[in-house]
Design goal:
With about 210 residues, the chain is an alpha/beta fold. It has two domains: about 5-125, Rossmann fold (3-Layer(aba) Sandwich), CATH 3.40.50; about 140-205, Alpha-Beta Plaits, CATH 3.30.70. Helix content is about 35%, strand content about 25%. The strands form three sheets. It has a four-stranded antiparallel beta sheet with strand order 7-8-6-9. It has a three-stranded parallel beta sheet with strand order 1-2-3, with helices on one face. Helix 2 (about 35-40) packs antiparallel against helix 3. The longest helix is centred in the middle third of the chain and has 15 residues, at about 90-100. The protein is elongated. The protein starts with a strand and ends with a helix.
Length: about 210
Amino acid sequence: MQDICFIADVATLPRFMKVQQLLSYVEGVHPKFSRAKTLSYLERTKIPMNKPIKALSKGMVTQLHLAIVMGIDARLLVLDEPTLGLDILFRKAFYRDLLEDYFDEERTIIITTHQVEEIENILTDVIFIKDGAITLDASMEYLESRFAEVTTGPEKLAEARALHPLYERTALGRTSFCFDGADRAALKALGPVKRMSLADIFIAKMSGDAQ
């Protein structure tokens, strides 16, 4: 357990403690906790050290929980919706710090989230779960080679639909098609081919359109 750290989607911190008391408590029970590292993260917030946790806002409680987790030298870090209740600037800063200050080749980080568009640039592997069943388990590298998006004009719509896209959407007179496993040469003949976003892959898999 000394090598594992977990944060739930609902921060479960003792509300009766003050922030500074919580740090002392964690320092006493977890041998791999660095008070100095946690304080360095807290300095970027507006969390007062002398206030009880019950007096903090929901966002501050989440920030405090994340700062404690980042201060623990764990080999396995499990984060369940870690940035719920935080504004977009702090979310981006957290994931940046996670990569720059925390992650190394000897650590594994597992993140469960519905905000896939925010973290796809830091992932190496992805698992989609629907109704308790795994619908997709693959590396990001594999997903980039398998899924693709093409944007084309009215003259190519029939050709694109003949390749059985996962789905299509239209905006400003152009139609984008999302494909699973289609021949790349055939796609290039339709228009510019780009990587399909993880959010779009997620939508396709959750809707049951992709096999």
